[in-house]
Design brief:
binds shikimate-3-phosphate; alpha/beta
Length: 429
């Protein structure tokens, strides 16, 4: 895919439903009593993987455009074939937690990227609860033998991971007694908010522990999924960096464990405002306005993203590295070694592509340093079949001098099939 520079970003957008919330809403609806209606369900290929797996587990799901009608069931049925999770870490890890609490055996498989990602992080706690899980050296394929009567655990997460936390909470629905997950840094809390919104109380304490009492049954109902804030991030960053831009994004998710990049960009001098904030099933959403250009009063020294702020920025870090190359002082990212375990090694792929475009990036084992004020040059870059890398470098391409060619650009469909069409609709060239 060839991309040319833009002069500014202008327009008004509504985005497809949030990917993380869509996965969870579909899983909750599948297990809940009664039927559920999910509107603005994500168009991401990852969420289609979750829906296909649930159908293979006997769940009746009707889909018309972006609306799902799901008939909840207490018992999933053993699938005839391995469950194909595609590229989706959330599908594989959270569904493993769901299956841990069912009296059946199922195999979960994924594509090459997903089959190289670490799964011991879910296997260990779920086996402590009584499930039996076979893997290939801690990686997919996973064969899960579940039990509808699990043992509750108190489990301290060795890494900040919302997928692992969610897997344990879903398993906790079928454990007798209190299941507690203790986090070291707060990760996205959609599972907690939606469990509370669909009738199962989740208690969150000051010490970052999250507990549910099992056995518990969710109650079905209706939800409209807010627009995906991680998808919005690419448009917000492009609008911020192109003076004269004027962009509005409506009905977008504003959960603080996901929208932290808005505060980071504001602290870097972006003119961002948020209005019309409302909630649906405890998930906040609203309208984001961005006016292009960086305020001159912003601090000019190098900014560091590190420590407990990393989990809330995790999916936006490659994009923030691109933005960092444009702001005075540049940025440093630390404590982000988890990025090496995503759909690609995002520290390596971000550094490689930024260098190809003329930035002098330093790569650490747990982060990157990107000098500011770099004039990016259009160049051949590679998505490494990682959707967030493709979209981050599409933004870089809008800022660069000359044409940028993104190899494997079509992988954006993993989270955001409409990305290039929407970018074209707001980019003024
Ligand atoms: C996700 C959690 C994060 C994130 C991923 C989606 C989720 O992964 O990077 O894109 O939906 O729970 P980890 O749980 O591995 O941090």
């Amino acid at each position: 895919m060839k991309l040319t520079p833009a002069r500014r970003i202008s327009g008004r957008l509504q985005l497809p439903g949030d990917k993380s919330i869509s996965h969870r809403a579909a899983l909750i609806a599948a297990l809940a009593s009664g039927s559920s209606e999910i509107a603005n369900f994500s168009t991401a290929r990852d969420c289609a993987s979750t829906v296909a797996c649930l159908r293979a587990l006997g769940v009746s799901i009707e889909q018309s455009s972006q609306k799902l009608i799901v008939a909840g069931t207490r018992k999933l049925v053993a699938p005839y074939r391995p469950l194909d999770c595609g590229n989706s870490g959330s599908t594989l890890r959270i569904l493993t937690g769901v299956l841990a609490g069912q009296d059946l055996t199922a195999e979960l498989v994924g594509d090459e990227s997903l089959s190289s990602r670490p799964m011991r992080r879910v296997i260990e706690p779920l086996e402590l609860m009584g499930a039996k899980i076979e893997s290939t050296d801690g990686k997919a394929p996973l064969k899960v033998r579940g039990s509808a009567n699990l043992t509750p655990i108190t489990y301290k997460l060795p890494v900040a991971s919302a997928q692992v936390k969610s897997a344990i909470l879903f398993a906790g629905l079928n454990a007798t007694g209190r299941t507690t997950v203790i986090e070291t840094s707060p990760s996205r809390d959609h599972t907690e908010r939606l469990f509370n919104g669909f009738g199962v109380s989740v208690k969150t304490d000051q010490d970052l522990s999250v507990s549910i009492e099992g056995p518990a049954r969710l109650s079905g109902g209706a939800i409209t999924i807010p627009g995906d804030v991680s998808s919005a991030a690419y448009f917000v960053a492009a609008a911020m960096l192109l003076p004269g831009s004027d962009l509005t994004i409506e009905r977008v998710g504003l959960n603080p464990t996901r929208a932290a990049f808005l505060d980071v960009l504001t602290s870097w001098g972006a003119e961002i405002s948020v209005t019309d904030v409302r909630t649906d099933r405890n998930e906040p959403f609203g309208t984001i306005h961005v006016r292009g250009g960086i305020s001159r009063t912003a601090d000019q020294s190098q900014r560091t993203l590190s420590g407990s702020m990393i989990p809330a920025l995790i999916d936006e870090l490659p994009l923030l590295a691109v933005v960092g190359s444009q702001i005075a002082g540049g940025i440093q990212i630390r404590d982000a070694r988890e990025l090496r375990l995503k759909e690609s090694d995002r520290l390596a792929t971000t550094a490689m592509n930024l260098r190809a475009m003329g930035a002098e990036v330093e790569e650490f084992e747990d982060g990157l340093a990107v000098p500011g004020g770099t004039k990016l040059r259009g160049a051949p870059v590679d998505s490494h079949l990682d959707h967030r890398i493709a979209m981050s470098f599409a933004v870089a391409a809008l800022l660069a001098e000359g044409e940028t060619q993104i190899a494997g650009a079509e992988c954006v469909a993993i989270s955001f099939p409409e990305f290039y069409a929407l970018l074209d609709s707001v980019a003024v060239r």
